[in-house]
Specification:
- The complex is a heterodimer of chains A (about 260) and B (about 240).
- By secondary structure, chain A is mainly α.
- Chain A contains 10 helices and no strands.
- Chain A has a single domain, classed as MetI-like fold (Orthogonal Bundle).
- Chain A is flat and about 75 Å long.
- Chain B has 8 helices and 9 strands.
- A 6-stranded mixed β-sheet of chain B has the order 5-6-7-3-8-9, sandwiched between helices. A 3-stranded antiparallel β-sheet of chain B has the order 2-1-4, with helices on one face.
- In chain B, strand 1 and strand 2 form a beta hairpin.
- In chain B, helix 4 packs across helix 5 and helix 7 crosses helix 8.
- The longest helix of chain B has 18 residues.
- The radius of gyration of chain B is 18 Å and the shape is globular.
- The two termini of chain B are about 30 Å apart.
- The complex binds adenosine-5'-triphosphate (ATP) and magnesium ion.
- Adenosine-5'-triphosphate binds next to helix 1 of chain B.
């Protein structure tokens, strides 16, 4: 598919939907506290842009820190697992327990324990917990997916376990890791927003809290503006991680190779 | 003797008796073929010689200490994320040969394998035969004294296989290395070898040991000589008789 179509088609659809939405809301005279028209959303954004952008930044900050921690922690733990089956057997079940426990349910507790003085630490921790697992599990799988013959070959040529890790397992695991990171990026954002919503009032300033606040005040247009900002942030995170993936794998991995040409 | 296998048995954890009582001596400079039915333990034997697995009983010994050994698998087994030159450099990188020198040696090995100009291609851009050549270049770049090859050309079409057979013979003669070569093909073993060891299955063991005293160098014409036909017939008969 050529580039024009790849971007033009979704953009056209988007414009058409927004236009139809604007037209329908105006034609049917829907009250703004039920469904605001795109122009109302835009006006709501402009009316409060500096503080909304500050909230966007706050959410982004929590998301990025949590994502970075998940990346470092997930990869480090996966490497540890790949070096010691004992450690893996001991810890992996707990990683799964962390994953299957709904983090929203644990969030209030974490907010009390960790967030009493520093709410942002609790937010980061919650977002981290949500983002951590896909990186751990994908990287663990990737590190196990090495070609056994290549491992034998490296051994024959005198490689130790760290050289095998560095030269073979690492590159083999990279596509898996990047796939996990793409999922984790989105999850970190979800985790951050959920945490902000649960944290509520006062010290929390992110978009999650602002949405709750706007909802309470029935400022639906503002809520839409905030949702749109969140969606754009999610898209930006996904696009960045996809670009990183593409740059890292473009020479060799099936997932990013062109089918022909 | 370069290497000697003494009454080797290999029983896997699963209980499979892959080899039983295999004794075999390989002299310096031989090009020895191992032939035999699927599952008779040819790959296992090669991995034992390489030291990648240990025998359950018996011993593998090398008269002059373990020689530099290289291994070529049935599949090219290249690193897909690395270009051809980096793949060929693998053993040199692991030996900490300086980068410049390593690159020069790898490039020379690639040229000998007929891959000049493809140094910076990625494996996915190469045909099956070319990938196999990279795998061979990677092995010879290590300057091994012992080259172990496990059905290296099995996946190739006949012309590619014959071309690589001739290249292999060239390398073997020039470098004076010792090659142990596993194949399913009677004709390939008859064409290449100084000696053919016929193995049998269940349990894996040596059935026959045939010295081929035809002259070298051999080339395409050799395939149409009576000596070649006689050698092939002898190997085929050994496989049939002893197995039956
Ligand atoms: N790692 C292993 N664990 C258990 N059994 C094994 C292992 N490797 C090989 N075997 C068994 O040992 C026997 C010999 O296997 P091997 O691969 O050496 O045969 P082969 O002669 O190379 O066969 P082929 O011609 O099909 O490659 C087979 O029965 C096989 O199932
Ligand atoms: Mg085999």
């Amino acid at each position: 598919m050529n580039m024009l179509w790849k971007y033009a088609l979704p953009a056209l659809l988007g414009i058409a939907v927004v236009a139809a939405w604007q037209g329908a809301v105006r034609a049917l005279a829907v009250p703004v506290y039920l469904v605001p028209a795109p122009s109302d959303v835009w006006a709501a954004f402009l009316g409060d842009a500096p503080s909304l952008l500050a909230s966007l930044w706050a959410t982004l900050e929590v998301t990025l820190i949590a994502f970075a921690c998940a990346l470092v922690g997930g990869v480090a733990l996966a490497v540890l697992f790949s070096q010691s089956r004992t450690v893996e057997a001991m810890l992996y079940p707990y990683a799964i327990v962390l994953q299957v426990t709904p983090v929203v349910a644990v969030a209030p507790l974490l907010l009390i324990w960790v967030g009493y003085d520093h709410v942002e630490r609790a937010l980061v921790l919650i977002a981290f917990l949500v983002a951590f697992f896909p990186i751990l599990s994908n990287t663990t799988l990737g590190l196990k997916s090495t070609d056994h013959n290549l491992v034998d070959l490296l051994r024959l040529y005198g490689a130790g376990r760290w050289q095998i890790l560095w030269r073979l397992k690492g590159p083999t695991a990279l596509p898996y890791l990047l796939g996990g990171a793409k999922i984790a990026g989105g999850l970190a954002l979800i985790g951050a927003v959920v945490a902000e919503m649960v944290a509520g009032s006062g010290t929390a300033t992110g978009l999650g809290w602002r949405i709750v606040e706007a909802g309470n005040r029935l400022e639906i247009a503002k809520m839409f503006a905030e949702l749109t900002l969140l969606a754009l942030l999610g898209i930006a995170i996904f696009a960045t991680l996809s670009a990183v993936e593409h740059a890292a794998l473009r020479h060799w991995h099936e997932s990013v190779l062109k089918k022909d040409g | 003797m370069l290497l000697e296998l003494d009454a080797i048995s290999k029983i896997f954890d699963s209980g499979t008796v892959a080899l039983e009582g295999v004794s075999l001596q390989v002299a310096e400079g031989e090009l020895l073929s191992l032939v035999g039915p699927s599952g008779c333990g040819k790959s296992t034997l090669l991995r034992l010689i390489a030291g990648l697995i240990q025998p359950t009983a018996g011993s593998v010994s090398f008269a002059g200490g373990k020689p530099e050994t290289a291994f070529v698998f049935q599949e090219p087994t290249l690193m897909p994320w690395a270009d051809v030159l980096t793949n060929a450099r693998l053993a040199l990188d692991l030996e900490h040969v300086p980068r410049r020198e390593g690159e020069a040696r790898a490039a020379a090995a690639l040229a000998r394998a007929g891959l000049k100009g493809f140094e910076h291609a990625y494996p996915r851009e190469l045909s099956g035969g070319m990938k196999m050549r990279v795998s061979i270049a990677r092995a010879i770049a290590a300057r091994p004294r012992l080259l172990l090859m496990d059905e290296p050309f099995a996946a190739l079409d006949e012309p590619a296989r014959q071309a690589l057979n001739d290249d292999l013979l060239g390398l073997w003669r020039e470098d004076g290395l010792t090659i142990v070569f596993v194949t399913h093909s009677i004709y390939e073993s008859a064409y290449l070898s100084t000696r053919v060891v016929v193995m049998g299955a269940r349990p894996g063991r040596v059935l026959d040991d045939i010295a081929l005293d035809q002259p070298f160098p051999r080339d395409e014409r050799h395939r149409f000589t009576p000596q070649f036909a006689a050698a092939a017939a002898k190997i085929a008969a050994a496989i049939k008789e002893k197995a039956g």
